Predict the 3D structure of the following.
Amino acid sequence: MKVEKISDLIDWTRAMHQQLAERFADGSTHHEQEMLKMLLSYLADHETALAKMIDGFERSADTKALNTWVYDYLEHKPIELHRSSDAPFAEMNFDEICKSMFDVHNQAIDLYRELHGRVDIPEAKELLQALLDMEEHETMRLAQQTNRMRDM
């Protein structure tokens, strides 16, 4: 997907979370360990919820912010869903699953941070800050939940 405006970035981010949710769901149906099936199922649900949250941002965002061009600001590499590992989630252990998931979330956070620091339009800056805050908050929430699951 070509990202030219913030609306494209939001669409792309939503699709990324949805694709991650689908990969987690697929892993949960094929994993042999029950605990990891539960983890992957939880992560799939969480990623689906994130995709819906991002959709809400787009529906309620200022048109000026959505139409802000960002292609000049994008020196950032695209988010790679498989950067940590190409293995399917059904073949990963707990730590590998978490590492892969946090890697994707941290890439999204870095992208929002980079754009937030470069965009000058106040409405766009505000929208990017809201997206960044949401991504950081949800990543912290995932860290807490996965640590609880690890302790089980």
